Amino acid sequence: MFPLPADLQSKLSVFTYPADSGNTKHCYFCPKCGVRILHAAVLPDGSMRPAVSIKGGVIDSGLNWKEMKPRHIYTRSAVMELPEQWDCYETTAPAQSGPAPGDDAKDKKTKEE
Questions:
Q1: Are 88 and 82 in contact (CB under 8 A)?
Q2: 3-state class of 69 per DSSP?
Q3: How many helices (H) and strands (E) would you count in the chain?
Q4: In the prediction, which pLDDT does 95 show?
Q5: What is the Cα–Cα distance from 17 to 42, expressed in whole angstroms?
Q6: pLDDT tens for each residue of 26-71
Q7: Are strands 71-72 and 87-88 parallel, antiparallel or unpaired?
Q8: What letter does residue 95 receive in the DSSP assignment?
Q9: Residues 6 or more apart from 86 whose CB is under 8 A from it?
Q10: Does the reported pTM lie above 0.85?
Q11: What is the DSSP string of 12-28?
């Protein structure tokens, strides 16, 4: 997926900032309306993190969102109460292919904590 194909890259704008984990986050967005499309991270060693965050609202396909189990990350700054049956993490969630630097399941918070 990275680097992005030239035709896609020409349609998006990007801002970059250092994440708390030490990674560098690239936030791709529509330059016309400002909607974020996806986030990707570069690890401290310069390699790409093996996962990206694609904003669900930009996907127009046959996905059945009701069957997907929501995972909410960065909930320490949430402005609303999240249902207790959802997986919630104050910072990053463990990556499916193994944890990336700074990822740790101990950040997972439940109602009981």
A1: yes
A2: coil
A3: 1, 6
A4: 60
A5: 11
A6: 999 999 999 889 999 999 999 998 878 887 777 776 666 566 666 6
A7: parallel
A8: P
A9: 69, 70, 71, 72
A10: no
A11: -EEEEEE-TTS-EEEEE
